[in-house]
Amino acid sequence: MVDGPDVVSRALREAPPDQLAEAADRAIRSALGAVRTDVFVADYRISGLWPVLDPDLPAAGFLACHTVAQRCFSSQQPVHDISDEGPCRLYLPLTAWGERLGVLLIELPSAPGPAVTGRATDIAGALAVAMRAADRVTDRYRRARRRERLSMAAEMQWDLLPGRSVSHRAFHLAGQLEPAYTVAGDHFDWSLDGDRLTLTVLNGEGSGLAASMLTAVTVNAMRNARRSGGGLVEQAELASDTVFYQHRGHRYVATLLLEVDTGTGRVRVVDAGSPHLLRLRGAVVEPVKVEQQMPLGMFAETRYELQEFQLEPGERVFVVSDGVWAAEPPGQEPYGQRAMARSLRATRLQPPTEAVGTVMRELHAYHADSDLRDDAVVVCLDWHGPRERNGG
Question: 274-294: per-residue pLDDT in tens?
Fold first, then answer.
């Protein structure tokens, strides 16, 4: 066998962006002696994994692959599927900078040893980074992800996202939008720059395309200030002024802006009217008390003040929009009154990428699995504490 990762990385660099799966397949067969490969991508609701190379995989074969692939995706660890008959299947997570994209399947003639598994893991990492980059210039992987047509508003919202998760030596962060295929105004954004993590969560006002356009203007105004070197106050004030002079106070956006110092765990906050910030310490869920200020765009020349709180290693922070907190199905009390705290506590042993899905599933169950009446955002931040860059 030749050096797997180098051969595959070169093949991926030379391949057209829509042909990464095919290029990886040819290179993996050559480098590792594989008899078959496939790429499974997670759908928008992260409810399943779907094949890219073999979309017409027979139902029985798909279900057999899917069960093990889902275990690999959830655990983020390689999984061997060894049977007495036929080749060994090796499932590897496709993850780039903490963003879970899917799973790579490699079928080998015999059970791989640690060296082959290690090379295959490196190959999966290279493929994940390539797919993440290619996503901007081809629709192929996005088409594989969607199980139904997105509304125009949802198309805009998903394109505006920075991703669905990111990992760092000091933290692990994940978010999820619902209803995935029709979401309009609620949104989250983040950026990691040196020792600063900036996180914003928006409780979009209105519905449909108008809500999505309002959110897009707000997010891009905050990004413009941030990318010009402005802190949270400048981001909030530019976004507020931009929205106000567009809508003269008739429309506004409740937004929470956070800036985490990844070296100390100190958090700066601007609470512009919502969403809701909660801390999970052990089995205790409690609100993080910060002073609520005016939503962005409600009044002209609104000025904002910073507040601060401290994160301690091992803590988990959730941010939820009103679509989660105030969800009130017929005959039920608001979800945030009691039921939400139970679902947050149920995530204690899950990573944030799984935790946001658990909260959303519990929210759907609270609605008796009927359609959500409002957009919903859940963001989960696990604070590990500052660590040395070498992982110590």
Answer: 789 999 998 899 999 999 999
Which among 93, 117, 143 is the end of a domain? 143
Residues 6+ apart with CB under 8 A from 75: none
Query: What average pLDDT score do residues 128-138 get?
Result: 96
- Any residues with CB less than 8 A from the CB of 387 and at least 6 apart, and which? 169, 170
Which residues sit opposite 254 in a β-bridge? 203
Give the Cα separation of 95 and 166 in Å (integer).
10
Considering the domain architecture, whether residues 111 and 203 belong to the same structural domain is answered as no
Give the separation between CA 357 and CA 77, rounded to whole angstroms.
19
Which pLDDT does position 382 carry in this prediction? 98
Count of CB atoms within 10 A of residue 143's CB?
A: 12
CA–CA gap between residue 120 and residue 26 (Å, rounded): 14
15 and 60 housed in the same domain: yes
Q: Report the pLDDT value the prediction gives residue 83, as an integer from 0 to 100.
A: 73
Domain co-membership, 165 together with 253? yes
Domain count, the chain: 2
State the Cα angle at 304 between 298 and 306, rounded to 5°. 145
Decide if pLDDT at 390 tops 70. no
Q: Give the max Cα distance, the chain.
A: 71
- State yes or no: cis peptide before 313, omega within 30 of 0: no
pLDDT category, 327, cuts 50, 70, 90? confident
Averaged confidence pLDDT in the chain: 91
- Burial of 88 by CB count in 10 Å (0-12 exposed, 13-18 middle, 19+ buried)? middle
Dump pLDDT digits (tens) for 45-76.
Answer: 998 999 999 777 665 556 667 889 999 999 99
Dihedral Cα 142, 144, 150, 154, nearest 10 deg: -30
CA dihedral (137, 141, 143, 144) in degrees, to 10, reads 170
Which structure tokens are listed for 189?
């954004």
CA distance 335 to 255: 20
- Torsion sign over Cα 389, 195, 378, 177: negative
Quote helix, strand, coil % in the chain, to nearest 5.
35, 25, 40
- How many angstroms from the chain centroid is the CA of residue 30? 33
pLDDT in tens, 213-246: 999 999 999 999 999 999 999 999 999 999 999 9
For residue 313, the SS3 value is coil
